[in-house]
Design goal:
Layout: H1 2-25, E1 67-68, E2 96-97, E3 102-105, E4 112-113, E5 121-126, H2 131-146, E6 152-158, H3 162-172, E7 178-181, H4 185-190, E8 197-201, E9 206-211, H5 218-229, E10 231-232
Parallel strand pairs: 5-6, 6-7
Antiparallel strand pairs: 1-10, 2-9, 3-4, 3-7, 5-8, 8-9
Length: 235
């Protein structure tokens, strides 16, 4: 008799525990905890594009040491330009306008009309999957620091993933503004298939040179800036 009473009491003690366990696993969807929010997107390493339409000035904060290059003397028999001068000033008579394109900025905000990027400017077309692009990007970052206030350095990220571009910016310390061209519109306008490409744009918005020679280093960049934009930048 005592054995039966003991079993009955044990059953009564276990029953609430079983009911409690059952309630934790059979609740409705309304009882389930809310899903965790997605991890916040990493902040962009690049600067925004808000100032790209403002011409660089030597008095801007962080201005570098770039200076106007001395005009190249006229070669024997060379004729005057439209302004009556020769040498580096003579290049102002040529060139072509930037293509009529509107590109988004990597950091968001208003799209950028490419022709409204104020020169002098060096525009580099790159992608994270392009080895020469990765090799030369640190040199463009250094150019943007050395020539701050004298010219703008702008990147155009072409046919790339956002994550890939972001990682390159973080790993290589790239900070200048980046435009996004997933459809390779700029390359089509320039009739160029390969990257990297670098455009040298003067103060009048004219493209003086498109370089497709491969990865550029500090010395080569300084030479091209002096040759095509008339600015002396330390290498």
């Amino acid at each position: 008799m005592n054995r039966h009473r003991h079993r009955h009491r044990l059953a009564l003690a276990v029953l609430p525990l079983l009911l409690a366990v059952t309630g934790c696993t059979s609740g409705t969807a309304d009882d389930e905890p809310a899903p965790r929010p997605a991890a916040a997107e990493r902040p962009s390493p690049f600067r925004d594009c808000a100032t790209l339409s403002t011409a660089p000035t030597a008095t801007s904060p962080g201005a570098g040491t770039a200076t106007p290059a001395t005009a190249t003397p006229a070669s024997p028999g060379s004729g005057p330009t439209a302004s009556g001068t020769s040498g580096s000033t003579a290049r102002a008579a040529g060139g072509s306008a930037l293509p009529e394109l509107t590109l988004s900025c990597f950091t968001g905000g208003a799209p950028v009309v490419l022709r409204e990027v104020a020169g002098p400017a060096v525009i580099n077309v790159w992608a994270s999957w392009c080895p020469p692009c990765r090799k030369e990007l640190p040199a463009f970052q250094r150019l943007s620091e050395r020539a701050a206030g004298q010219l703008q350095v702008v990147g155009v990220n072409s046919r790339d993933s956002r994550g890939g571009a972001q990682s390159i910016g973080e790993d290589f310390g790239v900070r200048f503004p980046i435009l996004v061209d997933q459809g390779e519109a700029l390359q089509r306008e320039l009739k160029r298939n390969a990257i990297p490409l670098t455009l040298f744009v003067d103060a009048d918005g004219q493209v003086r040179h498109v370089d497709a020679s491969g990865a550029l280093d500090d010395t080569k960049l300084a030479t091209l800036v002096r040759q095509h934009l008339g600015l002396a930048v330390p290498a």
